[in-house]
Amino acid sequence: MSEHHYQELYRLKSLTSLPSVQNVLDNLINERQVIREPIKRSKAQIQTLYITTGYAWGQSLTTVTLYVNFEGASELPKDKYSVKVLQRSLELNIYENKGANYNFKINQLCDFVVPEKTVLKKNKILIVLCKQNQDSDWPDLRMKTTQNTYNELERFEKTYEPIHQDNFQTPFIDSSGTCIHNT
Question: Domain limits at 66?
């Protein structure tokens, strides 16, 4: 406790006539007890919610359009959201809306876009991306990795039942199944 605090305790003791208050002040002065500062309430951390559902997309020959479903989008002030578009990614951030931040991000778009030509229509959060390779057809919004493609093929093969059985016998195998190629 600083000297200033002790001077204030002496001043308060001289002002009071109640013996119980004088005793408390004497104890504080004599024992040099620490008077705790009040606990300061800090602003709570705002939680970030990641938008992983509630969006759709479509395409034309020249653009890809994303529809992000977000309640109250038309009332968002300009300083409460941002859109960052790069050639292969996009990120939408909405700040401090109903006690939370919101983030919608796609890191690997299926193909290249022209960031400068991006249009944001806020009434329903409509993001229009201009394709760099016009007339290209995107099979998906996100670029598929080799592993994703392999997994899809593997799932297909498990569910696929061949209509007919192919005969893979060659003229180099005789009727007993022995290879006659090198004989």
Answer: 47-131
